[in-house]
From TrEMBL:
UniProt-listed PROSITE patterns: HTH_ICLR, ICLR_ED
SUPFAM superfamilies named in the record: GAF domain-like, Winged helix' DNA-binding domain
Residue stretches making up the IclR-ED domain: 68-213
Protein name: Helix-turn-helix domain-containing protein
Molecular function GO labels: DNA binding; DNA-binding transcription factor activity
């Protein structure tokens, strides 16, 4: 800790990170051991976080992330979208196809940013807010591929006609961005995706990931 930082705030944020990394919650004793502080400190941290609905405790006393984080989470999409737009514009103009940033929303893939090329006569109409199952379409499949440990494959996913008839897609997952699970890709009116597009979406996904770090 430095003179410019708050030890209490740091501990509170560490509590939230620990709780976010578990599905079954943590007890006061478990948090105390992980943080290296006594139980009284943990009780105070949890009480403060509960007041802001960022933490909740079940009947068994286990602490979990509270619904208050959803209010904070609603502000994430605009920030992510703004950071991704330069790379998406470059991708759309280079490929001549609709470029998109897609994030996980439960069991679905949600397009949060879309950029259409300016110079083509025809392109796929794909809008922000469009969603589809994660296991359909290049955007969702790329995200699922990144969940494999270790990450395998060419780094991108290609599909044809899975989301829209007559449209092909290519997407690459965002890698190395804490708290963000998504992909960058293009969708085009074509029976097959040109060979160079796969690597191009990988490069765009890397640009977006770097902008979000």
């Amino acid at each position: 800790m430095t003179a410019e930082t708050s030890q209490t705030l740091d501990r509170g944020l560490r509590v939230l990170k620990l709780l976010a990394d578990t599905d079954h919650g943590l007890t006061v004793t478990e948090l105390s051991n992980k943080l290296g502080v006594n139980r009284t400190v943990v009780y105070r941290l949890l009480a403060t976080l509960e007041q802001h609905a960022l933490v909740r405790r079940d009947l068994g006393g286990r602490a979990r992330v509270g619904l208050g984080v959803l209010r904070l989470g609603r502000q994430v999409h605009p920030l992510v979208r703004e950071a991704a737009l330069p790379a998406l514009r470059s991708l759309a103009e280079d490929i001549g196809a609709t470029a998109h940033l897609t994030l996980v929303d439960g069991t679905e893939a949600l397009a949060v940013a879309v950029v259409e090329p300016t110079w083509t006569d025809y392109h796929v109409a794909y809008r922000a807010g469009f969603r589809h199952p994660l296991d359909r379409g290049a955007a969702g499949r790329a995200i699922l591929s990144a969940r494999q440990q270790p990450f395998e494959g060419p780094g991108y996913t290609l599909t044809q006609g899975e989301v829209e008839a007559g449209a092909s897609g290519a997407a690459a997952p965002l890698l190395g961005v804490t708290g963000v699970e998504g992909s960058v890709g293009v969708v085009m009116l074509s029976d097959a995706v040109p060979e160079r597009v796969g690597q191009r979406v990988v490069d765009a996904a890397r640009e977006v990931a770097e902008a979000l770090r």
